[in-house]
Structures
1.
Amino acid sequence: MKIAIVSGKAEGPTKLNSFDNALLDAGIGNVNLIKVSSMLDKNTQIKKLPKLTPGSMINCVLSCISSDKNGDLISAAVAIAIGDNLGCVVENSKINLNPEEIRKESIDMVKYMMEVRGETIQELIVEEINHTVENIGTVVASVIYLD
């Protein structure tokens, strides 16, 4: 299994437009995203996001949040843990929470998922993005399933 980890942030005239712009910033704005649950194969390889065919159907774990309140700090994160037998992904998003807390919370959640499955973590990765809203802003963090 191959995955890519991406994130993006943007402003727009509406929440939908800011979400679309954040997807474009992350490199996944021209495809159809299919949200899936959060399991990975033990042999998962993390790759750079390739050029995706416009209009294609792409499985993903997606974390996103939008706000229209000037000055809000919006944050989105995905945490990935890969073990000997499988891997897990968590998504997390918050408004006006210290980014270090969001990172810690994401790590704690993915560690718990692995623990209840009896898995030892061999690799742990967190991708997070933060943005201070000017007008209407959105942040996205995503694990893209490439095969």
2.
Amino acid sequence: MKISLATNFDNNLIDKIKKYPVYEVYGKLKHDYIGGGRPDNTLSNVDKEKFENHVKKIREAGIRFNYLLNGSCLANVEQDPNWQYRFKEFLIYLKNVGVNALTITNPYILMFVKKYFKDDFKVRISTFACIDSYTKAKYWEDLGADYLCVDFVKINRDFKTLKYIVKNLKKSQIEILVTNSCLKNCPMIYTHTNGLSHASNQDKNGKLYEDWSLLYCQERELENIEEYIKSPWVRPEDIKYYEDIGIEHFKITERGFPTDELVKRVKAYVDRKYDGNLLDLIQGHGVVASKNLNLEKRQLSNRKEIYKEIKRVRGLGRTRDCERHIYIDNNKLDNFIKFFVDNKCTGNCNSCGYCNMIAQKVIYKNEEVCSYLQELYNKYDNLKM
């Protein structure tokens, strides 16, 4: 097992993960020339001095630092010679600081890096590139990519496809994003990744960004709890099935989490065991809770207030003020993955019912919180346009 872990730029994190098989940590400045997978209005500011000191400490620990250049849309500015000059200077800065790996989504950017920096950086292709077949994986390998984080919303549980890709690639290594609760085959994936990219790009205005794509997914899961089971996360207990087909690289999020929560995730996957609410491992928000968790329903008059209230209840970019709306009993999911390992999943959810059956057995709803959230999502939908 080789873990690529998000960093929150707390130097204490490095000391706490040294004993685990974390070969790489990844992160980025709050905003830069390319943007990434989190809007900058939800991230704490990291100045260059703090960034440089953190990278130095990581490298001294014998761990690689992977800088995220994974924005999926640059509005064609990458073809502007003036922008290219500034971007090249930024890459020189990253190299001098000690960054020795990059995560990229845009093929143009990959070719740019390979032309001017050869093998100075190991290159990982972001899951934003939506690699869901051997053909796509081969294209990126031919362009010089070292690691490919596959399309988690499509093929994380497609063992037949994953096995074929691993077997037939010559150099590139496959990576699986394990801690994510997005919808399976999410219709928002391209819209969402593009929106996030612009919301963390220094040349764009990310202050106005509302993560309505995320709210769409949250509402869908709330209305259909089987979506939580269909969601292509990977339990710590099920890592072995991926290793059996030759995958050894696993990615753990979340950049906005406190150090103890990041360490908890690493420990769970290294131990291959977690007792508790699976949601605490697979969601990118809500793990940090206030001391007094009481559901306080509020009178709201406009869209901004409703959006802010959803964030308060769910713990989006802030502490969570209410109990978790659902509990997924991880201990009851033993052998769940075998259905997919044995290639029994046809993708025809309407005629199957497997995930719905599992959901009824392992998910417990806090009806009061769920009801309030549904009310908030409905109000937000009515006012977001």
